[in-house]
Amino acid sequence: MTATDSEDRAQRLARGAVEGRLAACAQISAPVTSVYRWENAVETGQEWQVLFKTTAARYEALEAHLRATHDYETPEIIATPITRGGADYLAWIAKETS
Q1: Quick one: which of 9, 4, 22 has its CA closest to 65?
Q2: Which residue from 3, 39, 40, 63 could staple onto 47, CB 3.0 to 4.6 Å apart?
Q3: CA–centroid distance for 94 within its chain
Q4: What is 6-39 written as a DSSP string?
């Protein structure tokens, strides 16, 4: 998962990952309000969250893509392991990212 400050940027990150087979799917949720500390100040801003669905084998390549194309100096990049899921859906993710 990552977040960015515009819908257009979220679309570009999502599309690039799916086109590159780094993720089978990317879902954009927005807008969300983020409150965070940056450079000794508390900031508030709207962001668009992007949730990428990929395999453990493709994680490193997806992270490299996000670091190379994200506009934030320190982008949010968080991975949550899938502990269970529908076998057919997980097989689809594996197929689309291979």
Answers
A1: 22
A2: 3
A3: 17
A4: -HHHHHHHHHHHHHTTS-SEEEEEEEEEEEEEET
Task: Please count the residues of the chain.
Answer: 98
Q: Rounded CA gap, 21 and 47, in Å? A: 25
pTM for this structure? 0.91
Q: Give the tokens for residue 78.
A: 């968080």
DSSP one-letter string for 43-74? EEEEEEEEEEE--GGGHHHHHHHHHHH--SSS
Q: Give residue 47's pLDDT.
A: 97
Query: What gap in Å lies between CA 42 and CA 36, rounded to an integer?
Result: 6
Q: Which residues of the chain have a pLDDT value below 50?
A: none
Predicted local distance difference test score (pLDDT) of residue 30 = 81
Which pLDDT tens digit goes with each residue over 49-66?
A: 999 999 999 999 999 999
